[in-house]
Structure formats: structure tokens, C-alpha cells
Amino acid sequence: MDATTDKDPLVQEQIYNALCYLGESEPEEILNACDEYLRQHDKLAYPHRVIILKAMETVVKDNIGLLEKSTAKEVIRDWQQAASNVLVAVGQRFINKVMEEVLTKFQPGILPHYFVMQTFANLSVSNGE
């Protein structure tokens, strides 16, 4: 997974494809490995983190019926937290665009998802002046 930091888009795509391919036969192991890698490399640049998150998303979508409930629940929580963190980081430069996207998740009469609220709060804290 260290190769995700390669600047060549073809290498990045190959890493993504390899993770997805491995995820077809061992989805829980790949999801756990990706999760562990992201935890150990919390300073990984967001474009590179996104490659791993997208691979995790694909593995989950393609294998949702095979995942144990405990794994699915843990992966979804971690994935949502990581996605929230990516939005907050991007929002430090492009706050208007990120806020526009986050605000679309607020629907009248419907309680927003926990991570939508957390993202909204973290955006306000990271951009407070």
C-alpha cells in the first residue's frame, strides 16, 4: 500500500485494482489491512488516503453479503470517519464547495447522520478565524 504515494496515476490505479482484486477472495482481510494501514499512517496525504478508501468502498459494496456484521459495522464507522476527515482537510482550502456539499445532506424533517454533523462541526472548527 506504500505505493499509493507514487505520483504516477497508473501506479495508483494499479494499487487500487490490486486491493479490489484481493478483496474479491479475502474481503475481511483486505478491509482489516487497509484499516490498519490507515491507522498506522495517519499523516498520509489525503489524495493517497482516498485511493485506499475507494478500494475499501468497492470491496464492501462488492462483498457486503459475505461480511460478518461486526466487520461491516467497524469498517463502515472507520470509513465514514476517514471520509469526514478528507472533507474537513479539503475544506481548509475549498470551504464553500465542501459546505455546499455537506449542506445538501440536511433535509427538512430528517435527522442528519452523525458523521454529517461531525463533518459540519469539524469544518467550522478548522476554518474558524
TrEMBL record:
GO CC terms in record: cytoplasm
Please name the InterPro entries in this protein's record. Maestro_heat-like_prot, MROH2B-like_N_HEAT
| Source species, domain of life | Eukaryota
Q: Residues in domain MROH2B-like N-terminal HEAT-repeats?
A: 19-127
Its recorded name reads MROH1 protein
Question: Per the UniProt entry, what species is this protein from, by scientific name?
Answer: Ciccaba nigrolineata
> What broad taxonomic lineage does this protein's source fall under?
Eukaryota, Metazoa, Chordata, Craniata, Vertebrata
